[in-house]
Structure prediction request, 477 residues.
Amino acid sequence: MWQLPKAVSLVAGHGEGDTELNAFDRALQDARVADINFLRVTSVMPPGAQIIDLPRYPAGLLLPAVYARIASSRPGDRIAAAIGVGICRDRHGVIMEHTVHGSAAEADAAVRRMVEEGLRIRGLTLDEMVTAVAEHTVQRAGCAVAVALFWPAPTGLAS
Amino acid sequence: MWQLPKAVSLVAGHGEGDTELNAFDRALQDARVADINFLRVTSVMPPGAQIIDLPRYPAGLLLPAVYARIASSRPGDRIAAAIGVGICRDRHGVIMEHTVHGSAAEADAAVRRMVEEGLRIRGLTLDEMVTAVAEHTVQRAGCAVAVALFWPAPTGLAS
Amino acid sequence: MWQLPKAVSLVAGHGEGDTELNAFDRALQDARVADINFLRVTSVMPPGAQIIDLPRYPAGLLLPAVYARIASSRPGDRIAAAIGVGICRDRHGVIMEHTVHGSAAEADAAVRRMVEEGLRIRGLTLDEMVTAVAEHTVQRAGCAVAVALFWPAPTGLAS
Prediction:
């Protein structure tokens, strides 16, 4: 709390389950982040933070994250979740999340427009954009997630 | 943040209010946790964490928790909230929440199935399961809650 | 985590965007808090906490907050968000949030009633009440927010 994250990882995944909550759990597992206790946050990319691959972490860790989550119990439904980070070097950036009843490409295009607007309304220039997207076609109960995980050190948990 | 909880308490409660938010407040009061500032988290039982009775805490404490919450303004509506913890000794476990327009027994049965599936998809065995459930029949605006509170020390706040 | 905030700031704002999430971002910007990573919390005013003007903070800060948020994509829709703090000197207090499809005055009146009930059900007396409200009339996609920010020190971040 009251800290500045030093690194961010982007992941995405999708899955099926008996219920939408179990499908959410499988989607997180697909994204290799199912054993984290997420604290959902709103969406600022801290100044100087690095984008890093998912580092090692212990199960049960309390970790702040921005995430997009969409679930559906309508067989045949196509759903997608996207997360996007827009970086303005020397300043901070923005993180946007978006979900659609549609394709990964649609979710990705939408989140990119949102990142651009998020930077524009702050008067920040876009130096780099990274997104992560997952798509799922529902069988019984399905879920797609896209997550930006905040880490306390440039390489993850180690300081 | 970026810590591993060492103990978990399960509570549940229900109540009536002028509005659904006030009913939520009364339900938390019924569960003896109304004076906590909850940070909602997703749902992993940290390895080695104990299940303990609700310890003492100061009003206004910032505390991570998993919770199920259901509110209704339809007189006569029966609502229930359940929280369930599945423990796999020597490994971590899962915490699931569920709400229904129905009875406590239905909510409890559903959350138990979800805990079982949550462990199964992780390849973890179920050594112990604990649930907490509350049911409410709405008069004006009602709410039922079930909460898993995360503590930093094996006995609560004291280290 | 597991701490007691020492001060609270109340702000409110509104805005338009291409999407409801971007409108939320603009509303936060209008309230001068768009560059914070909010961790949403439930709603207890810690004992002895001060109400202070918005202090300085670095972009990207992780900060616990209570917030009311309403968005709409229906042109002409009037929306309002209110946050209210009720203080009982020598004890703790409550923080309530409320949103309406209606005016700032309606949102303010409703949140004041909620604060009064929140104190009454705890057996606390109302010594002081402070609210913040924002109203917006939607053009394309609009949002109104009202936020109570929790600070670790009586003057904000500095201890």
Q: What stands out?
A: The CA atoms of residues 56 and 156 of chain C lie 8 Å apart. Residues 104-120 of chain C form the longest helix (17 residues). The interface with chain A takes residues 1, 3, 17-19, 21-22, 25-26, 28-29, 34-40, 58-64, 151-152, 157 of chain C (CB under 8 Å). The helical segments of chain C are 20-30, 104-120.
